[in-house]
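Box S1 | Example of a co-folding query
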Amino acid sequence: NRDAIIPNAKPFPFTIRAKKTAIVMVDWQLDFTSPKGFGAALGNDCEVLREEALPNAVKILEAGREAKCAIVHTLEAHKADLSDCPPSKIRRCDKIGQTVDAKMGRILVRNEPGNSIEPLVAPIEGELIVHKPGKGAFYNTNLEFQLKRRGIETLIFTGVTTEVCVQTSMREANDRGFECIVADDATESYFPEFKKACLEMISSQNGIVGWRCLTEDVVNALK
Ligand code: TIU
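Box S1 (continued) | Returned holo structure for tricarbonodiimidic diamide
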């Protein structure tokens, strides 16, 4: 309940009050992390997401649960009839809604096997699950309402991929008045140069989008 400070956050110290804080776990779904999923179908190497960032996301999730923060899990997920998927999105990826690998089911479709969350960070009872049709977690979802009704003011982000769904969600949250921080080592991209540039632009210009820190900083602050 007391204020905790992350003194070495960039661009300057960040204050957390656990009761008003949500951990936002962005799109830790097999579609992006599995070598048989959507990310891989786009031609990307997915191993790095699991190997580098996932163990740190686990640490932040566990620290958040321990500190009684609200926990949010997002999924990039369309309805089975794709009625919430703009044709423009399908035009640039005709694999959406298709089955590329039988074990993963239809790509980016709700409740298909590929749309399940990595077991290490799977939701438990009482945690919020947000199916989002876009890259940002606030577009066409009730996330803003859910956070505000819980009195949440601060968001701690982990997830994939850094410059796509994490960045978009963080920008949307920032515009809605939430104080946002991302742990550099609990997010990952298929493109190391995009990750680096994205994290730099988030905290540049006096934290134009928000703050950054490392997993151990979040864990220490929530103790
Ligand atoms: N979750 C998310 O980032 N969706 C993407 O499509 N990411 C890519 O990097 N393609």
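Helices lie at 30-33, 38-41, 47-66, 87-92, 143-149, 162-175, 192-207, 215-222. The beta strands are 3-6, 14-17, 21-26, 70-76, 128-132, 154-160, 179-188, 211-213.
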